[in-house]
Amino acid sequence: MATGLHKSDFQNPVIRWVDARLPVFTMMQKEYGTFPTPRNFNYFWNFGALAMVNLVIMIATGIFLAMNYTAHTGMAFDSVERIMRDVNYGWLLRYAHANGASMFFIVVYIHIFRGLYYGSYKAPRELLWMIGVVIFLLMMATAFMGYVLPWGQMSFWGATVITNLFSAFPLVGESIVTWLWGGFSVDNPTLNRFFSLHYLMPFMIFGVVFLHVAALHITGSNNPLGIDPKGPQDTVPFHPYYTAKDSVGLVVYFIVFAALVFFFPNLLGHADNYIPANPLVTPPHIVPEWYFLPFYAILRAVPDKLGGVLLMFGSIAILFVLPWLDTSPVRSMRFRPLARPFFAVWCLCFIVLLYVGGKPPEEPFVTIARVATAYYFLYFLVILPLLGRLERPLPLPESIARPVLRGGGPLPAGAMSKPMEKA
Amino acid sequence: MAHSMAQPAPQEGETRRDFLQLVAGSFAAVGVGAIAWPFISSMNPARDTLAVSTTDIDLKPIAAGSAITVVWRGKPVFVRNRTEDEVKAARNVPLSELKDPQPDQTRVKKDQWLVVIGICTHLGCIPLGQKPTDQRGPFGGWFCPCHGSAYDTSGRIRQGPAPTNLAIPSYAFTSDTQIRIG
What we know:
heterodimer, A: 423 residues, mainly alpha, Cytochrome Bc1 Complex, Chain C, Helix Hairpins, two-stranded antiparallel ribbon, 2 strands, globular, B: 182 residues, alpha+beta, Rieske Iron-sulfur Protein, 2 domains, 3-stranded antiparallel β-sheet, 4 helices
């Protein structure tokens, strides 16, 4: 073999020729074929793969929608209606794209829940987690700009309210907002740049997802027990075990997705966005898309403009430091009898915030939002740091293989070589 | 020759190499900034956007107690012909009760005419109160339906999350019944 070539294990001469010069086949085989993966995944571990599929669907439908969309205030609304009525399968592309955004957030919220419950953010996966938070932020920015493009009433007023968040910052706030708008109100320059950025950002997400997966393949996956695999008896190759398990989840995912697209395409949307944008009339109740409601509720819970904006951004920023706020060395909440109920209440608060974020800013919703917001932050800033010291975790299993193969099956020699240290 | 090739002895403090790195780094930073600036600046309002910046308004058709909305730079401007009671209400409030204290006299050029930018200073919604059928809120001015801010008959914030009073655009009376905004 010539020097400088990769030593390929593939037999097919064409694949072998390419692989020797650019070992993409070896890489795929290593990272997605034989990649050792904990053998005890439950279905919560489907959601990373589902998010990846969802991203591909969004990019594919989006590129084809862009071929028929016109980013101009005078034409945007009509071009979307033309996509719905005249373009072949335009209705399918648009409904798949709009509901795909909702599906993306459902999938990612469950993916984040999985990480929070099973302690996937803890060492050594802190950076993996932080990259994930970056993806979440990029997703929110992309979804927000995408919702502006149809140029309906909710598009316009959502854009106005969200860009105005930046005016809360002292001194530079107004200049930042003018810069974001490219004018003195949300107008044609704003729509144009939002279209440009909405097209760009999914590809940035794709890049950061690559980093997310690369970091994952250094640390390896967490698992429902939250303990490290100790050898080959604790893992299975990714293919065919988890390619198969992910496929099962994918079928369920597509059933839900199809139900939304074909039977309830406007269920998660807002009727006011079928009214063309009018800069002189604010709709009586402006609400963001459902996936932003928890954060919108936090924004409105604070009776001070800058305070509300800071708390809203803080509610996501706090996730960046979560690996250091949670002081317990035990990852999985299965073995944390105190953390589990506190986390359940936090999840409840998140759902409550989602609910009150869609209600008008009046009692009793304001008080409910304030209580839920307080607990949201209390959980991260007080409860988790204290629990690490006060809580007595349940004994951890010795290995992943033992509970999985419980009651039978001979274990390979050395499987139990070293019991897991109790935290 | 061998002598001149020898590594210089480790020195205390800064070396020439540190200096060169610092200078090269600063130059690179200035260069990146200079190249980035046109990109950032291109997102600011373009010249044609800036050009459309004055609006003339005829005040004659506006009856006492009513108001009109005009568009200036893409934003609504509220022009309200206030009744004497409304002016009195605005002037009788002690400044200590206001979140953003401003006497009514400094917010108008002629007592009856209030000209404000009709954008809630909270997050940019258009407050209700221009039409006689609109809800005007507890202070008789405007009420923002988005997050519940209430303004008085001088456009000052009295209740709710908005931090400041409704903004006053720059305008001038070009005659007794004409104003020019911008």
